[in-house]
C-alpha cells in the first residue's frame, strides 16, 4: 500500500511539473556529457603519452665537417670519440636509463631524410655528406630523457643532443590545460544542475503543501513525506544520465573512432570501451547530485 502510494505521488509530481522535469533532464544531460568528456580527455592524454613516449628517442648527433658547436673544436668526430660515446652509453651508471642504442650512419640518415621529405623540394638539395651521424637512444623511462641529454651535451665529438620529449612536454602541457578547461566547464554545469534540482523540488513541495500537510497529520514520517520528491529528481537525473551516456558513446564511436582516428593516424585514440567505462560514473554522479540536492532542499524548504 505504501509503495503504491509513493508511485502515485511520483507520477502526480512528474505530471504536474513536466516542464521542470524536462529542464532537469536537459541540464543533467549537458552537465554529465561534459563530465564524460572530461573523463575521456584525461584518458586521451594518458593514451597519447603511452603512445608517444614509447616511441621517443634521444638523438646524439655527432660533429661533421663545418660544425661549430662547443664539442666540435677538433672538427669531425673521430673514431676514438665515437668509441668513448658508445662506452659512456653502455656504462653502468646509465643502465637504469638506457634501453637500446642504435648507430645511424650518414647513408642511413640520408635515406630516412629522403623518405620523410620525399614530397618536398628540400630533399633534392641535400647530399649524403651533409647528413650527420648519430646515436639513437631508446630509454627505459622516456620522461627521464634529461639525464642522458645533459650527460652528452658539449661532449667532445657531439654537435647537439635532441629529444622529442621537449616538444611532447609542451604538447601535453597544452592538452592538460584544455583538459582543465573541460573539467571547469563541467563543474559549472553541475552547479547549475544542483541549483535547478533544488529549485524544482522547492516548487514541487510548495504546490503539494496541502497533501504533505495531510500526510503529516495522519502520522507520516519526514522521510516518507520527502521520499517521492527525492525519487522524482532521481528519475529525471537517471533519464539525463542515460541520454548523456548515449551521446558520449555516440561521439566516441562516430566522431573519434570513425572520423578522427581514420583521418589523423599519428596517435592512438580513446575507444567505445573507454566511453563505456565512464558510463557508470555518469549515473553515480547524476543520481548522487539529484538525491542529495533534493534531500537538502527539502530539509530547508519543506514546511508542513
UniProtKB/TrEMBL annotation:
Intracellular or extracellular location(s): Cell membrane
**Keywords noted in UniProt:** Cell cycle, Cell division, Cell membrane, Membrane, Transmembrane, Transmembrane helix
Gene Ontology CC terms: plasma membrane
Keyword flag Nucleotide-binding: no
Belongs to which family?
Answer: Belongs to the ABC-4 integral membrane protein family. FtsX subfamily.
Q: What does this protein do?
A: Part of the ABC transporter FtsEX involved in cellular division.
What name goes with this protein? Cell division protein FtsX
